[in-house]
Each structure stands twice: as structure tokens, then as C-alpha cells.
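Q: Make up one entry.
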Amino acid sequence: MRIAMIGSGYVGLVSGACFSDFGHTVICVDNDQRKIEALNEGLMPIFEPGLKELIVQNAADGRLSFTTDLDSAVAQADAVFIAVGTPSRRGDGFADLAYVYSAAAEIARSIRQFTVIVTKSTVPVGTGDEIERIIRETNPDADVAVVSNPEFLREGAAIKDFKHPDRIVVGLEDERARPVMTEIYRPLYLNQAPMMFTSRRTSELIKYASNSFLALKITFINEMSDLCERVGANVQEVARGMGLDNRIGAKFLNAGPGYGGSCFPKDTLALVKTAQDFDSPMRLVEATVDINEKRKRAMGRRVIAACGGDVRGKRIALLGLAFKPDTDDIRDSPAITISLSLRDAGAKLVGYDPEAMDNARSVIEGMTFAEGPYDAAIDADCIVVVTEWSRFRALDLGRLKSVMRTPVMVDLRNVYRRDEVTRHGFSYFSIGHGQQSDGTIKG
């Protein structure tokens, strides 16, 4: 199949690279000339494990290319995927669909044959109807079928998720699109990936419902962790006990500083706004959004409390700036909110992240960036584990303590065991364990 991928951001690049690896001919289109030039040179605009190798190989094999010429890419395509950004709109939090609708109009002007237009971007329910209206209005002669095909990719594991999906959701109103979408995803039949065909509006809502439910699950265990601290329980064991129930499952039950990233914050907010517009409020999701924002701010206060209630003039080292490991994405990362809270309290901030520091420099003001975790710890009064990168899981605690001014660790991801850290002379504070101010366990 011949595929045009409009948008060369995270979703567009991963999808385009994987489709080309299936054997399809894929042209990725972007209006950023510098990004296209870099991609043609094998330089990646984002960090995602395995993505560079996949792109370089398929480009060398002639199945994957990059261009700013939308017209020629669309004119020869069997399917055109819209994979542009849908950030939260300033002012009301609704999904900003300006890029989607602009892409739809451009695509309409370039249609030469029957073409399936596939919305890969995360969009509110009813967006496919508007895309179809725009295309009909822009080019009444365009022969198209507009389809919803949401992505379910985890940053840091996107290629695995694409090639071994839990499900492939396709929402359509025109049956002519069914064989095209079936052929595009045919290579995944070997992995027995279930392909679910449904209506377009149902498909659009599945994406928001999925992300919002996962965000709700994270928020639930975070609130449980607060209760565990009050009553002297262990949230990790509570989560394990819950997760062993097959109806609940263990995933997304790791207590931490709150969710962030490119999806959960904007998708939960967009679902809230959509539900309000249809006079069907999602009160659980509304509460989830509110609780998560407050939790990220509370993490800064937690660090201040661990430092004796005052961080003015103290050096605080943050390990991890990305919202999760194996990505350089810092969008809505808890590290941003925590840094603002600590900076406002007068702390001197130093940060380290294996991949996200370039992005963090333009967002987190007043932070010094270190070359590694031990460099960050030099003369620090407290070290805070914010993101659970694998390389932070087995730090030399003796070496860490030897370079710090005050051996205090705030572990917001429960990476370490308390006895392991305190044995090296640290005051240790974790999440969801009934601990007193001196770090000892209640009960």
C-alpha cells in the first residue's frame, strides 16, 4: 500500500516507520523544512528507543521518505494518515483542532483518486464528521472515506506497542475503507492482533475513554498512597494485592508524583470539556484532573518537609526530568511543577536526565544541569528521584552520600528499599509508606 503520513511528530514518525517496516511505501510529510532535512540525514527530532534504527533502515531500503511536498505525497496515496498535534487550547482546555482541520483542507485539494483519509491524531468525538465536511466543501469531487484509527502507543515502548498491539480500532462509515485498512494492518495478523471495526464516533471516544481510565487508575493509587502513609500501610503491597485480581490488573498501579506527558493531561481535559458541551459531565474524570494537578504541587512541599521545612539556599538535586523513562518528553512532567515549587521556596536547583535535558533547558528556569547523577549530588542537601530511569535504580549509595552535603533522599517513585538506603546513612522518604518525619515506619 502507498501511505502518506501528514505530520512527522511522535505519532507520525513511529507510525510511518512501522508501516514501512511492514513493507508499505510511506511518505512522511511535514511543513518544517529543517525537520525534514534532518530526518533525511538520519537525525531524529525525538528520542524513542529503536526508532532511529528503524527509520534509517527503511529509508535505505526505499520504503520510507520525508518531504514537505504534501500535494505529490497525497496524490499517489491509497491512504492518508493525519498525525498532527492536538494540544490543549489556551483559555478553555478543549483540544485545539486547528492543525487537523488545516491538514484536511490541504489534503482535499490534492486528492486524485479514491483515498482513505485516516485520523491518527487524538481528536474529540465528531471530529471525523467535520473533517469530511471540510473535504467535501474544499473539493466536492474528492472521492474519499474518512476513518478514525486512534493510536495506543506508550512513549518509550512505542515500536513494540505498534507491532504487538492489544487492539487495532478502526471507526468507519463508508465500507469501502474496510479492505484498505485491513490490508494496511494485515502484517499484524501474524501476531493475532484483534482488529475492531466500529462507528467513527465510537472509535474517537474509545481513545479518550482509555486514556482517562488509565489516568483515573493512577490517581486512585496515588490517593491510596496518601492514606497508607496516614494509617501505617504499604502502598506497594496494597497495589500488588489489588493487581492480583484479574478484574483490576497490576498495570498503572504504581504510586508516584502524578501523571504527565503528551496524552493523559490533555486527553482527560478534552474529555471533560467534550462531556460538558454535551451536558453529560464526567465527574470522575474532572476529579482526576484536579487531584493530579494538586498532587504534583504537593510533591514540592514533600521535598521541603524532608529538608526540615525550609529549603532556602539549599541545593536540591532532581534525578529525572522527563515525565517517564525512555523518552525525552517533558510535557506536563511532574519535574516541572516540583522545580517551580522548590525555586519559589528559595532552593538552588540542579537536575539530570539521560535524554530530556535539552528540552528541559527551555522550560525549567533557574536550574543548573549536571552531567550525571553523581555530579548532580555534589554538595546537595537533598536528592529527589523524580523519574524511574533504569540507571537510577542501582546507584552507588555510598558514593552518592560521600559527595552530598546532607544525605537526604526523597524517592518519589519507590525505586529503593528503605533499609537499603538508611543503611548508608541517608534520611529516606518514599511514597505511600507509613513513615514518620525521621523516616521510620509506623506499625
User: Anything to note?
Assistant: The first strand starts at residue 2 and ends at 6. The chain is about 40% helix and 15% strand. Confidence is low (pLDDT under 50) at residues 436-443.
